[in-house]
Design a protein that fits this description.
This protein has 250 residues and is an alpha/beta fold. It has helices at 21-32, 44-51, 67-80, 105-132, 154-180, 206-211, 223-232, 238-241, and strands at residues 12-16, 36-41, 57-61, 86-89, 137-143, 194-200, 203-204, 221-222, 245-247. The strands form two sheets. It has a seven-stranded parallel β-sheet, sandwiched between helices. Strands 7-8 form a two-stranded parallel ribbon. Strand 7 (203-204), helix 6 (206-211) and strand 8 form a beta-alpha-beta unit. Bound molecules: NADP nicotinamide-adenine-dinucleotide phosphate. NADP nicotinamide-adenine-dinucleotide phosphate binds at residues 17, 19-20, 22-23, 40-43, 46, 63-65, 90-93, 114, 118, 141, 143, 200, 202-203. NADP nicotinamide-adenine-dinucleotide phosphate binds next to helix 1, strand 2, helix 4 and strand 5.
Length: 250
Amino acid sequence: MSSASPALDGLTVVVAGAASASGIACASLLSRHGAAVVAIGSHAGRLQDALGHLDGVDLRVCNLTDAPAVTDLSHFLAADYPSLDGLIHLVGGWRGGSGITGQTDDDYELLHTSVLTTLRNTTRAFYPSLLASARGRVAIVSSTAVDSPTAAAASYAALKSAAETWTRAVADGFRRDREAAGDNTAPSAGQTSAATILVVKALVDDALRAAHPERKFPGYTHVDDLAAAVVGLYAAEAQTVNGQRIILSS
Ligand SMILES: NC(=O)c1ccc[n+]([C@@H]2O[C@H](COP(=O)([O-])OP(=O)(O)OC[C@H]3O[C@@H](n4cnc5c(N)ncnc54)[C@H](OP(=O)(O)O)[C@@H]3O)[C@@H](O)[C@H]2O)c1
């Protein structure tokens, strides 16, 4: 495989929130590149329906809003795999309302839990393993709404913004903790882990296109292109993608 199409043999990558079209695309491509993929969802049936057809993808049910459950899962995976080399965090959700006054507390709480709490839980639980990895990568998928927030989606944009900030803080941790360990005797022996924000306007997949042949989906990112961007993070040096915000929408 070329440097833009890296071999991921020997790596273990967790796809958190894997039962959607984006999860299927990421799990499939990571697996095709040789990674062992652990696919996490909150519902066994949906996870099986989405990914059960993929050989070698390890399906794990975990409610990622439950911090102790995520910590337990990290211990199970540490026992089952020699390393943990990626966390592709896809749990999202969307709620909108009628202008600023239509931003309800219920919607805010739901988004806070799904967008931010799940990310805090996975990154805290898996951080030590990702830091120790020779090629650790964390990726989230954020939204152009962070740059151009609308009144109708104020809560969503605010929480995606918070998720971006958390991810940049994880990036800071990767840089500082590796330096603190003194493991920087040579450029290539320094930082090996990176946390990156991938930004889309919206996602589209073949089924959505087929269901709406009249629509053009302008600026949308196909889930296969998202998956390629995720795999591409492994082709880059950690320092060059750590803390970066990469726009994928056209
Ligand atoms: N779709 C878009 O147009 C769009 C636009 C901008 C940004 N994004 C971002 O891109 C990412 C991927 O988008 P998406 O639409 O594929 O994501 P999604 O459907 O919102 O979430 C992905 C998966 O997460 C799982 N999940 C939800 N709650 C969970 C929990 N508590 N524990 C474990 N798994 C849970 C869901 O499956 P189960 O319920 O079966 O567990 C779901 O299939 C998200 O972060 C999203 O915010 C998407």
